[in-house]
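User: Last request for today: this protein with nicotinamide-adenine-dinucleotide, please.
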Amino acid sequence: MSEDDREIGVGVIGAGWLGDVHVRAWARLRHHYPDLPVTARFVAVADSVPTALAGAQRKHGFATAYADWRDLLADPRVDVVSVTAPNALHREIGVAVAEAGKHLWIEKPVGLSPADAEAVADAVGAAGVQGTVGFNYRAVPAVARLRDLVAGGAIGTPTHARVVLLSDYAAHPLALLTWRYTLASGGHGVLGDLASHAVDLTRFVLGDLERLVAETAVFVSERPRVPEGAATYGHALGGDGDPTGTVENEDFVSALARTRSGVLVSLECSRVAVGEQNHYAVEVHGTHGLVSWDFRTQGELLLSAGDRFVDQPTQRVLVGTESGDLGRFQPGAGNAMSYDDTKVIELAGFVRSVLSGKAEGPQLVDAVASAQALDAMVRSAAGAGWVDVPRLRA
Ligand SMILES: NC(=O)c1ccc[n+]([C@@H]2O[C@H](COP(=O)([O-])OP(=O)(O)OC[C@H]3O[C@@H](n4cnc5c(N)ncnc54)[C@H](O)[C@@H]3O)[C@@H](O)[C@H]2O)c1
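Assistant: Here's the final one, the structure of the complex with nicotinamide-adenine-dinucleotide:
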């Protein structure tokens, strides 16, 4: 630690997968952003499951573990808080973090509804703290390049696009009926899990949505109940013939949306897509070409640009250090980055916003916009047909 470094006390609420990813990002921040004048102290972690607390303390050396997140917020050593607890807790915890005067790094989708995301946005605004939301696919250097190519006219005027997030994490029909599958604790299933990212990527590249029509489906309607006393997190399997319960939220959503600039976008997300593992992709067509990106080959784009219209070649572009923050991680194009790296980039933006007082990166307003689009999808699929996506408040 240099004498000029500002010491930042880190608190984490929810020591599951993303809690771990957030702490790992803090641990690696200086490796990639040595110019940021901060030293992180892992002050406290909160989780309702004792083994999760013990694991986080052993792995990351948190000074204190709290069973109740409210105690973490009362700890004066904590300056910034990661909220990586399940979605249904985001509103209460997010509002409380801001009211405690601490900066907030909160995972998407920020609650279960537009009202939840707005409540957290309002609390952050009223407290004058910084708030960053975990829409980390924006941080991928190739996504930044794709956005620049589209904005710079490389493919002409954008006409139509496709954003898909297809995965198999809930595909096994014996996966236990955990919190993930109920409306009260899991919200709208794949909408909050994956479509929240799809909407954010669409907005990041093509701007706000104006209208949409959607259809949703539940393909695995019954799942084995969680046995008495068993962990309710993760993706553990039950047995064939075990007592089952009803899945209350969406496995699949497909939407056709029109952006405010007139681009037609097809969004498709599934949590039960057998054979698909993290197939997260953006494809934008324009009057003169095409540019596309797939998370599984996150350092490259496919680009077709020119004036041939027909039989116009599509080339593979390995993005280099001119794109986003790639140069913070790798010396040049063709060197793979990881999922975790996107979180380090997101964290760097959060830290810069804390130091400067100026918002940077995905904000609470983006969580509100995403939640509004998801809510429009739910209303449309329930029979409303084409629905307007509300304009963001000024
Ligand atoms: N940005 C991304 O790419 C991404 C990816 C996965 C998950 N997420 C989001 O991160 C959040 C967490 O997801 P996850 O996959 O890490 O889930 P997880 O189930 O692995 O972890 C959640 C943790 O929260 C803890 N928890 C539950 N109730 C609590 C309480 N009252 N107080 C404190 N802790 C409590 C659980 O014990 C568990 O350890 C969700 O909002 C999810 O949508 C984001």
